[in-house]
Amino acid sequence: MDNEEVQPTRREFLSMVGAVGGAALMYQAMAMMGIAKASPYAGPIELGQAPEGTRVIILGAGLAGMVAAMELRDAGYAVEVLEYREKAGGRCWTLRSGDSYEELGGAVQQVDFAEGNYFNPGPWRIPYNHFGVLDYCSRLGVELEPFIQVNNNAYLHSTKAFDGKPVRFREINTDYRGHIAELLAKVTDQGALDEMVSEEDKALLLTSLRSFGALDEQNAYVSSTSASGRRGYERPPGGGVDGSPIPNEPIDLSTILQSNLWRNIAAGESLNTSMPMFQPRGGMDMIAQAMERNVGDLIRYRKKVTAITQDENGVSVTFEDLENGGASETVTADYCVCTIPFSILSQIEHNFSSQLSNVINSMYYASSIKVGLEFNRRFWEEDEHIYGGITYTDLPISMISYPSNDFFQKKPGVLLGAYSWGATSYQFNALPPEERVAKALEYGAQIHPQYNEEFKTGVSVAWHRVPWVLGCYGQWQDKEAQYQDAVAMDRRVVMAGEHLSYLPAWMEGAILSSLDAIKRLHDVATNG
Amino acid sequence: MNRFILAAAVLASLAPLALAQEGTKPEADDSAALFASPSVLTQKTGAGIYGAVCAGCHMPEGQGAVGAGAYPALADNPTLEFPEYPIHIIVHGQAAMPPLGSVLDDEQIAAVVEYIRTHFGNDYAEPVTAEMVAGAR
User: Fold this and answer.
1) Rounded Cα gap, residues A149 and A403, in angstroms
2) What CATH number belongs to A55-89+286-362+478-527?
3) Residues 10-39, chain B: which have Cβ within 8 Å of A?
4) What angle do CA A329, A330, A332 make, to 5 degrees?
5) N or C: which end of chain B has fewer CB within 10 A?
6) CA distance A127 to chain B (A)
7) For residues A372 and A351, what is the distance between their CA atoms, to the nearest angstrom?
8) In which pathway does it act (chain A) (predicted)?
9) pLDDT score, position A53
């Protein structure tokens, strides 16, 4: 404990890094400490050699479980994985034509998409800085393609503004920037910033504001070819007789502020949502399938864990074998990696430490709902020139995301027609699947009237109704106080999964959690 | 439509309202009034709140559901005997169940606790008040 007191504080440490190594190293150090939120993934894990004949049982064949299985097997451990479902992947999950999904309550949805079309109920995009996910994709040969997160030609929409009509993102974004640049230029000219900005910097500030906001030479944001070059024209530049462009009129500042449409302007600027983003070609579960090809021979499917106990000699896991009429069976191992979501684990008998048990019993799982809608025609491309990206709305569907694959093809396409959380999601969750789809259609048609003509089929996943996770991702009662209790290895058992990371609900969180867990397990196994 | 059936339908639709005026709490099911607010539930009646939130996991007849884990049945559930217990769980959450104290107010929680304690085979007549919920926050 005394040692800790002479260690530098985080702030002192970072100042030191900045002084010695400059901004790049500073950023890297901050990223490593989770401050700048880039992934601290540092390349393939090198565990070394497992002690002869050491057995590890892994509970759950999602990404955390399969990463643990691959790496521990490669280090020489004897690995066995128990999985409740009939397939691997967990929440890294894709629904395609011919799939059938039964949710809690018994409703069954038969997915009837056109060949090649799909819907990702869980993860649906990979940030460029989620180095762990990207590295496993690379190592396992998962083909990635761009995911269009930001599309200036998609819409911003409010039921309470612009008569309920959607407005192009580019118009709101350009006009908002133009107006605030003009305001800032005005107060700069009026001397309001004199005490804060030097004369030299004021000149540079004004020059930069003209560029940033598409202002004219008088620092005004007005109808102009430079503004229309961003927001769109009355008559766009062309050729021949009518080739000269006619700019259009910006929307005034008050209207933009009152519309609240500025709310989503920065949606594509966080580290986790800025371009470029990626998706596996053919659906997110291409990652799960690739891992399953690598490690599937170690997985025993349709095993429902009912008890986990450990003593000084090992770990015993009892399960119902759903392949065998629910017959009870017990397997033993030297160590256990448990990736079962705490929503499920809190209902399983165990003898974990009281600190760990307290966290397991207090973690609740978020409500979230997604609806996938397939249309006969890609009208968003053909009629509205929207190629991927996201439309944001204050309707209960929250957003519409357009597919980032199969552009320009004359075939049906699948939209993410709703992605909602919180109070809205609770209410969607209480509706039968077909009514969720009907609601998503009803709301989405307010933005795209073509919905009514072109709808083909739909599927919805309300995460509280998913039988094997009971929610979307783990939420803490008090993360700061509880986190170390939950990630600490409890004698022979270590927990892993997105819930045990600071990238909750992201696949990267599951992978980083798993790699950290097996590193510590290996340390205990080799050094006691 | 047959005039008699129409009249019967109108009467049937009015009946819950008539009961509501006599009783202390409205009995009408307003669960279909969805999504009035992005941040809270706006249904007022016990049946409405149950149908708009609780039924999603505990199921429409309170029968619960079983997968890798289970949602407990509320039907014929003796743990509902003392209203403080469900009130506490709804306000603060328990295990996988999220706390709903931020999306339901005291009156709503009182109404839905009263509803589950008097439906699905449960018969606990003691009224549930908003004050009891306020005390549990």
Assistant:
1) 10
2) 3.50.50.60
3) 31, 34-35, 37-39
4) 155
5) N
6) 28
7) 41
8) Plant hormone metabolism; auxin biosynthesis
9) 97
Domain ranges (residues) in chain A: 2-32, 55-89+286-362+478-527, 95-123+367-465, 168-264
Q: What is the DSSP string of A413-460?
A: EEEEEEEEEHHHHHHHHTS-HHHHHHHHHHHHTTT-TTHHHHEEEEEE
Q: How far is it, in rounded angstroms, from Cα A12 to Cα A19?
A: 11
**pLDDT of res. A3:** 38
Beta bridge partners of A91: none
Cα separation, A387 vs A419, whole angstroms: 19
For domain A168-264, the CATH class is mainly alpha
Residues B31-63 have pLDDT tens digits of: 788 999 999 999 999 999 999 999 999 999 999
- Contact between A432 and A459 (Cβ < 8 Å): no
- Helices and strands in chain A, H and E counts: 17, 27
Check: CB of residue A92 under 8 Å from CB of residue A282.
no
Residues 387-416 of A with CB under 8 A from B: 394, 396
| Interchain CB contact of A503 with B (< 8 Å) | no
Flag if A344 and B68 touch (Cβ within 8 Å): yes
pLDDT at A28: 53
Q: B7 falls in which pLDDT band (50, 70, 90)?
A: very low
- The predicted pLDDT at position B26 comes to 52
Q: Which domains does chain B have, with CATH numbers?
A: 3-136 (1.10.760.10)
Residue ranges in chain A modelled with pLDDT below 50: 1-8, 13, 27, 32-36
Q: What is the pLDDT of residue A19?
A: 54
pLDDT at B15: 42
Q: What is the pTM of this model?
A: 0.89
Q: Is B67 on the interface with A (CB under 8 A)?
A: yes
